Amino acid sequence: MFTTNLLSFTALLALSTHTLANGIPVVVSPGLNVSSNPNVTAHIPSCTNLTNNAPSPYCYTKLQETAYLTNWNLTSPEICAPDELWSTCFLRSVYGKPGPKCTTLTNDTKTCEQYNCTSLSLSTALCPEPKAANGTKDATAQAAEEWYGAWNLYALQHHIATWSAALSANTSVKAILAAVNPRVPNTATTLLTTLVSKHGLGTATNADAALVKLLEVPTGRPEPAYGNARVRGESSTLTAAQWQLALRMRLGQVLDLAMGRFGDFLGAVKGGAYSARGLASVGNLTRSLEDD
Ligand SMILES: *[C@@H]1O[C@H](CO)[C@@H](O)[C@H](O)[C@H]1NC(C)=O
Ligand SMILES: *[C@@H]1O[C@H](CO)[C@@H](O)[C@H](O)[C@H]1NC(C)=O
Ligand SMILES: *[C@@H]1O[C@H](CO)[C@@H](O)[C@H](O)[C@H]1NC(C)=O
Ligand SMILES: *[C@@H]1O[C@H](CO)[C@@H](O)[C@H](O)[C@H]1NC(C)=O
Ligand SMILES: *[C@@H]1O[C@H](CO)[C@@H](O)[C@H](O)[C@H]1NC(C)=O
Ligand SMILES: *[C@@H]1O[C@H](CO)[C@@H](O)[C@H](O)[C@H]1NC(C)=O
Ligand SMILES: *[C@@H]1O[C@H](CO)[C@@H](O)[C@H](O)[C@H]1NC(C)=O
Ligand SMILES: *[C@@H]1O[C@H](CO)[C@@H](O)[C@H](O)[C@H]1NC(C)=O
Ligand SMILES: *[C@@H]1O[C@H](CO)[C@@H](O)[C@H](O)[C@H]1NC(C)=O
């Protein structure tokens, strides 16, 4: 149950010193308190009922999740280790431990694997889906905000991992090759943009559109571009299997960006694009790709 396992951020702030997963003690000071904003508390109880009607884009907005996360980001440097991903630090702070199997805050990474939402794996072991069960029927605004933060990390990681798995299927090869534009240089980004736009399932929250926007975040260096053999002067082409690898690598890079750079994450989840259940399944996406 979420609340029972949850060392609230309030409690974390109340600690004058706090020992990080790597053993570095840090001084923690309180920042702004979004949870005490009357515009937030006015929307208790509906959005603090974290049973089966959560999450929703409506509550993402009503809980002022963007403001809460921004406030968390502004105070996080004080509770995060210098080399720790913000997403890992966030999960550690809301769950009150460094990883799912850890029992205390400890620097022993051998016995306790840390939360990690950067893997393209569909396993939820290190990037867990926060549970909405009995214990979270009437959470405080702050606990609900923490729950939404953990939910959005899970949902974004899972959505990208779902696309990665679907695009890796052999039956998706035809759709991938069809997305290669013979007239322009093609990159993993241009192909993903085409494929996600064309074969996305049109979720109510526009999660696929948010993913396409995330793909627009500059990589920092030029992406390799591949032409088409039919175009004169463009001899380099990729096989379907090479494209699949390139798409997977690019999705992994996008995931790394979102989990490591707070602003990129916020850009994707703000507005509630990922505040929904069942955004897509591998089976449904694979079928959509197969029907090209
Ligand atoms: C954590 O690391 C510090 C410094 O490296 C060490 O002194 C301490 O014993 C470690 N604590 C645990 C619980 O392993
Ligand atoms: C934020 O405000 C709420 C409601 O007033 C209060 O219960 C909570 O302790 C405050 N948290 C912090 C970190 O000050
Ligand atoms: C609450 O919302 C109103 C209307 O949007 C706004 O004018 C006011 O500044 C908000 N109050 C706080 C504390 O954010
Ligand atoms: C929370 O939502 C569930 C599902 O809609 C509902 O059955 C339950 O009565 C609600 N609980 C509270 C405390 O509002
Ligand atoms: C997180 O997972 C990724 C992918 O599995 C891995 O490369 C990385 O080393 C992990 N990071 C930590 C801190 O465990
Ligand atoms: C909620 O608690 C009741 C009583 O403890 C139990 O019967 C029910 O199965 C629980 N529901 C969920 C969704 O955990
Ligand atoms: C997918 O295609 C590769 C290469 O053509 C082949 O070796 C592999 O057996 C196929 N996998 C499945 C599950 O059909
Ligand atoms: C988050 O914090 C980092 C520094 O820790 C800062 O560079 C960045 O601008 C912050 N992002 C937002 C959206 O506040
Ligand atoms: C998958 O497709 C089925 C049938 O169209 C639909 O009922 C189901 O909700 C879809 N699931 C997801 C996760 O998209």
Automatic annotation (TrEMBL):
Q: Which UniProt keywords apply?
A: Signal
Superkingdom, according to UniProt? Eukaryota
Signal peptide range: 1-21
Q: What is this protein called?
A: Uncharacterized protein
**Species assigned in the record:** Alectoria fallacina
Q: What is the lineage of its organism?
A: Eukaryota, Fungi, Dikarya, Ascomycota, Pezizomycotina
